[in-house]
Design a protein that fits this description.
Layout lengths: L1 H5 L8 E3 L16 E3 L1 H6 L4 E7 L5 E7 L17
Antiparallel strand pairs: 1-2, 3-4
């Protein structure tokens, strides 16, 4: 968050990222992690989310996901600003 705002972007106007932490449950469907405007998408190169899960037998599984992999940085038809 600090890195994004240091680039001149405003939380709640240019982007909004859900604050998550250890022990918080993740819904199985319709998980919104956040949103970015087209300007923020052009400015931010990578947003990584690390998910670590311990299954019923105690095995730990971990994945790091790049949320902006394949993002269209300059859409041909930008969305109107959020109100």
């Amino acid at each position: 968050m600090r890195l994004i705002t240091s680039r001149g972007l405003t939380d709640g106007t240019d982007f909004d990222l859900v604050r998550m932490g250890p022990g918080l449950p993740l819904p199985s469907r319709n998980l919104l992690i956040g949103w970015l405007t087209e300007a923020a998408t052009r400015e931010v190169g990578v947003i990584l989310v690390r998910v670590r899960v311990t299954d019923r037998v105690g095995d730990v599984h971990e994945r790091t996901i790049n949320l902006l992999k394949g993002a269209v940085r300059a859409p041909p038809h930008p969305n109107p600003p959020l109100v």
